[in-house]
Structure formats: C-alpha cells, structure tokens
Write a structure and sequence with these properties.
600 residues, alpha+beta, Phosphoenolpyruvate Carboxykinase, domain 1, Phosphoenolpyruvate Carboxykinase, domain 2, 27% helix, binds guanosine-5'-triphosphate, binds sulfopyruvate, binds manganese (II) ion
Length: 600
C-alpha cells in the first residue's frame, strides 16, 4: 500500500473485509494500467477493440441490456432526516440503508480484483480541487475514471497523511463463485438490488449493482454534483450541471458563459459548437459540470472539475458536432454503440448510412432495411479526453477558473417557451431556473421519454439536499457581490416544434446567433424589448438562419399568453411540493409574472 494515510488505510481494510475481493490493486494512473484494464475487458469479451487504422486506441463496451443509463428511482440521498433530502430526492434512513447495503456488499467482490482509485476533481493540487477515492471491482470504471478525472499516485501524495477525501464505494454487485467467470457478459445486479446512495452529512458515496456511467463513475454526478452541492451550500459557492464555454467576438473580446440543460438536452453540443455567424469563435472549458465561486474581484469564476467528456453518441455527427467527432478519433471508450464490419463505430444520426451490416449494441446482426430497433442504444456514450478536443480553451485547466458573464437555463420545450428570454434581474433569473422543465430523454432509466417534467436548474436528479433550500442558496448569491458583477441570466429553448412536430429552429451551430445576442446584452450593444416574461430580442435582432421564415421567428420570439397561463398553473403545482422551504422571493416572482401576463 502506497499511502501512510491512516484513515484511508483503515477504510480500505474495512471494505476489503466486507467485500472479500481476490486481490487489491492501487491505481497509479499510468497508461500501462489503462491498457491492462482494456485488455482484461477484451479478454472478458464484453469489450471489442476497434479498427486500429480508423480508430486507434479505441474500444467499444456492450453493457447488460438492463444497465444502460442512470437509475433515478434507485438513487438515494440518505440524509439524517427526510426533510433534509427534500421532496425531489428518494430517501431512506441512513442506518437502515447502510444495513441493507452492507448485506449486499458482503462478499460481493469474490472472484474479482478490487481497485482503489485516487482521483482529483479539478486540477491536482489546486485549491478548488476535491479528492475522492473510489473503490470499485470494475475495470471499465477504472479505465473511464482515467479519462474523466485525474487519477494516480500524485493524488495520494497531495492527500498526504491526513488530507480530506470523499470515500466512494462501488461494486457491480456480481460476485463470482470459485472458477466462475462473467461468460462474456457485462456484470451487474438486477434493478431492485441497485442502489446509488449518498450520505451527505458524512460526504460518502455507496453505489451497488450498476456499472454504467453516472451510477458507477462516482466522481461525476455523485461527487461533483450531489455531494459537492452540499459542500457548496455550506461553503457559499455553486456546484452545477452546466457546460462552460468561451465566446470570442470578431473584435477579439471574450465572454465566458455557463449553461444548465437537463441530461441529453444539448450541453456537449453547445460547449463545442462551430458558430455559423462569421468571425465568432466558441471554445470549450467544460461540457457537463461547473463549480463556481466568487473571486476577489467579486465576479463569479467557474472551473470544470472533470478531465473528459462522457457524451451522448446518437445524434453526434460532423454536421451537428464536428468538434466532438474530432475528439473521439483516438484513445476513446465507446459504450453501447453499433459496430461496422471493419470494427468502426456507427450510431443513429452519425451523418451517413451504415456502410453495410452492423453488429448492434446488443451484439446481434443489424441491417438497415429490416431493422425494427435502433442499432446504437439511445443513451450510448463516448468517453474522450477533453485535451483531444480541437477547440478546448487553453485556460480550461486554470485553477482560478474563468469569470462568468452569462448563465443560460434551458430544456426541451416543444411549445410556449421562446428561443431566448433574459431575466429582469438576479431573483427573476433564479425564478427562471427554478421552473425550468424539459421533455424527458433516454439519459435516465424508467422515466417516460417525451413527457415534460420540471427539472429545476437541470439539477432535479443531482441536488444533494432540499431543492427549496437550494433555491434559497441561489437567491443568497446576490448579496455576496455588487449587482453589476453578477452574471446575467437567460432562458433558451432550441427545441420548439411546429404543430406537425418539425423543429422550428435548426439548432446546433445556428445557436451561435442566440449566443451573439446574449454576448451583446452583456456588453450593452444589443437591443431588447421588455415583455411580461422578461427581456426579449426584437424580431430582427437575431439574424434568421436559412429555412427559418419570418413567421417562425415571430412564433419563437413572442409571448404566447395562453401557453404562459397554462405554464403558471403548472408552476404553482410544482412549487406546491416545496412547502415552507420555498423562498418567499420566488412566490413573489410568480405573482408578479401572473400580474404582468394578465395586464398584457
Ligand atoms: P448529458 O451528457 O446527458 O448531460 O447531455 P448533454 O446536455 O450534454 O446533451 P448533448 O449535447 O449530448 O445532446 C443530446 C442530444 O440532443 C443529441 O442527440 C444531440 O444531437 C441533440 N441536440 C443537441 N443540441 C441540439 C440542438 O440545438 N437542437 C436539436 N434539435 N437537438 C440538439
Ligand atoms: C447525465 O445523465 O446528465 C450525464 C450522463 O451526463 S451520466 O454520467 O451517466 O450521468
Ligand atoms: Mn449530464
């Protein structure tokens, strides 16, 4: 064991006794270690190496068909009281949950190696970084953590003898009998044995039964959002489900923007978009998570705690997201994509027809003409090092972070919600975030895809405490600095549809037209009209992309009064859940909105 950290040693010993692995491996973060994880997975036959000429250093994993996304109904915030977890989180008494889980963990790593992964969220050694130690029995998790976080011996050095770390325990929940192996199958436990548990007071994570994405790569949603949101509340900063982008205008002026959209609603795409507006440039700082703190100058600074992208594969093409496509040409892990005969990747919306027969994500032959199901799972993902993104901003690892000028909220809303709408002030912006909603996507299991649900701040599945208190925390940010130093807040919607279900807005690179307006609202160059719902561009303030008629534009940039009246009802219902934790400021915003709409 390469650490003198007693608490860490003791924890590892405890887990070893409980889980009874065959062997223990302390991860050093080297390429050799990564290669070994991939080799083990290929030998185990649940991973396929890809074509070395076309996709060097790449591999595809096929998960179990039941283990394909986050499982929100098996995700728990086991705070000491149910009230502390709030109405939007699943809660079990922590002692009871630990008892249940200890029974599951008992002997759960038999026949497997237990990996101890020291990792840093944020640049190693920087003041804002948080250290986690993940114990896992999954080589897939080790390899993905190598890409998504900073893993290795250096982290243990920084931790020293008594540094603070977040213990993250993970098991796929599939012990092996003497002589048994996985038989080419991705190991996991059945749904009713899966638990993605958080103990916020102890700042501890216990995950059991799933090997997939956010359920298993515990640095991401579990640590950097659910646990970090609790730490952020206590320490006065923000841990958010947001991309961070750098926008440069033709004169070379730079603004940094963050955006919170729910899962599979366009963060990765916006973070690395190629603007269609001439002379403008977007560079990427992060595509999923932002930690934001006030700097000494009173401005809000954001860092990306991650080191890679765990991006949605379907829909990613040279046309929609060229920079993501360029990021995954080498050294990437794919999960649940389809494979071509010459062992390259394919998925729905990759931008070209399959070049022949495919092997679909379940391992079966697939042909376009006869197919009844998609070849790639709708939540198939790529894992790629952020450093491979051609437009990664040079300052993406700056421990100071980048000063944020604008915050966007959004989601998939086929009607009512306009293309863009600026908040009247900070509190109105918090109101906008608190009522954000979206059609449900395939990023979570067991939810009805396509129906609209409220997803405040895109944090519904990721806030580690009472959502009403989280709203309060956001409101409180206003008092920490001067009004003119706060980011401006906007609501955007790329997903308006016509009655017949066609997109009204082409999205992707064309979203740069909206980013330009946001930028110029920050510099004071852009005009806006005051409406009952906020400040909106005049109809000609945003240049129309090809194929968008003046009428479409008007539909996307006007206030649909009837739609908003319905929206008010639904917001009231939503707010009703939070009881006396709902800040009165938000009720006042709601009443003021209603009044403005009625007068209009
Ligand atoms: P998570 O990683 O789950 O948090 O998702 P994300 O928010 O990063 O979403 P991502 O950018 O991966 O996009 C998800 C899906 O939405 C992909 O299939 C995209 O092609 C599609 N999408 C992204 N941006 C747009 C857009 O502007 N318009 C339309 N119509 N679709 C979009
Ligand atoms: C999301 O669902 O928001 C993701 C993917 O970013 S996962 O890491 O699985 O949470
Ligand atoms: Mn996400």
């Amino acid at each position: 064991m390469s650490t003198k950290h007693q608490k860490l040693q003791q924890w590892v010993n405890e887990i070893t006794d409980m889980c009874q692995p065959d062997a223990i491996h302390w991860c050093d973060g080297t390429q050799a270690e990564y290669d070994e994880m991939i080799r083990i997975s290929i030998n185990g036959k649940y991973a396929t190496p890809l074509n070395e000429q076309k996709r060097p250093g790449c591999v595809n994993f096929n998960s179990d068909v039941t283990d394909v996304a986050r499982v929100e109904n098996r995700t728990y915030i086991a705070a000491k009281t149910k009230d502390a977890a709030g109405p939007t989180n699943n809660w079990i008494d922590p002692d009871e949950l630990k008892k249940t889980m200890k029974n599951l963990y008992k002997g759960c790593m038999k026949g497997r190696t237990m990996y101890v992964i020291p990792f840093s969220m944020g640049p190693i050694g920087s003041k804002i970084a948080k250290i986690g130690i993940e114990i896992t029995d999954s080589p897939y998790v080790v390899a993905n953590m190598h890409i998504m976080t900073r893993v290795g011996t250096k982290v243990l050095e920084i931790l020293g003898d008594d540094g603070e770390f977040v213990p993250c325990l993970h098991s796929v929940g599939k012990p092996l009998a003497e002589g048994e192996n996985d038989g080419g199958k991705w190991p996991c436990a059945p749904l009713d044995k899966k638990y993605i548990s958080h103990f916020p007071e102890e700042r501890t994570i216990w995950s059991y039964g799933s090997g997939y994405g956010g359920n298993a790569l515990l640095g991401k949603k579990c640590l950097a959002l659910r646990i970090a949101s609790v730490i952020a509340r206590d320490e006065g900063w923000l841990a958010e489900h947001m991309l961070i982008l750098k926008l440069t205008n033709p004169q070379g002026v730079v603004k940094y923007i963050t955006a919170a959209f729910p899962s599979a609603c366009g963060k990765t795409n916006l973070a690395m978009l190629v603007p269609t507006v001439p002379g403008w440039k977007v560079e990427t700082i992060g595509d999923d998570i932002a930690w934001m703190k006030f700097g000494e100058d009173g401005r809000l600074y954001a860092i990306n705690p991650e080191a890679g992208f765990f991006g949605v594969a379907p829909g990613t093409s040279d046309e929609s997201n060229k920079m993501a496509m360029a990021s995954i040409t080498k050294n990437s892990i794919f999960t649940n994509v389809a494979l071509t005969e010459d062992k390259d990747i394919w998925w729905e919306g990759i931008g070209y027809e399959p070049p022949g027969k495919l092997i679909d994500w379940t391992g079966n032959e697939w042909e376009m003409e006869t197919a009844t199901k998609p070849a790639a799972h709708p939540n198939a993902r790529f894992t790629a090092p952020a450093s491979q993104c051609p437009v990664i901003a040079p300052e993406w690892e700056d421990p100071k972070g980048v000063p944020i000028s604008a915050i966007l909220f959004g989601g998939r809303r086929p009607s009512t919600i306009p293309l863009v709408n600026q908040s009247r002030n900070w509190i109105h912006g918090v109101f906008m975030g608190s009522v954000a909603g979206s059609e449900i996507t395939a990023a979570a299991l067991d939810l009805k895809v396509g129906t609209v649900r409220r997803d405040p701040f895109a944090m519904l599945p990721f806030c580690g405490y009472h959502m009403g208190d989280y709203f309060k925390h956001w409101i409180g940010m206003e008092k920490k600095t001067d009004t003119d130093k706060l980011p401006k807040i906007f609501f955007v919607n790329w997903f308006r549809k016509t009655e017949s279900g066609k997109w009204l807005w082409p999205g992707y690179g064309e979203n740069s037209r909206v980013l330009k307006w946001v930028f110029e609202r920050c510099t004071g160059e852009a005009e806006a009209v005051e409406t009952p719902i906020g400040f909106m561009p005049t109809v000609d303030a945003i240049d129309r992309p090809e194929g968008v008629t003046a009428e479409d534009m008007k539909a996307m940039l006007s206030v649909d009064k009837d739609g908003w009246i319905k929206e008010l009802h639904s917001i009231k219902e939503h707010y009703g859940k939070f009881g006396d934790h709902l800040p009165k400021e938000l009720l006042e915003e709601l009443a003021a909105l209603e009044e403005r709409l009625n007068k209009a």
